[in-house]
Specification:
Helix content: 40-55%
Shape: elongated
Number of domains: 1
Strand content: under 5%
Low-confidence stretches: none
Radius of gyration: 17 Å
Distance between the termini: 45 Å
Length: 84
């Protein structure tokens, strides 16, 4: 069952998170839920030990841009076969 929660974030962080979520076909709510699950599912003792990858930190700080290239099934098959 979903529960509504009100959170406050920096405006720029939310804008970047919305772009990231849209690029990955996921809602901002589900992205936040995923990150909270990751943060609370391990036995971390401090915020520095949370299981968040370096690129997520870089995206949140605006240091990198994640670009996802749309590819057709035909293109994926060609790429796969060319790597063999």
């Amino acid at each position: 069952m979903d529960v509504k929660v009100t959170l406050s974030f920096d405006e720029q962080v939310i804008a970047q998170a919305k772009e990231f979520a849209a690029a990955n076909n996921i809602s901002l709510s589900r992205l936040t839920e995923f990150l909270l699950i990751k943060a609370t599912s391990s036995s971390s003792y401090s915020i520095d030990e949370l299981p968040v990858s370096d690129w997520v930190n870089q995206v949140s700080e605006g240091k990198v841009e994640y670009v996802r290239k749309p590819r057709t099934n035909k293109k994926l098959k060609e790429e796969y076969r060319s790597r063999k």
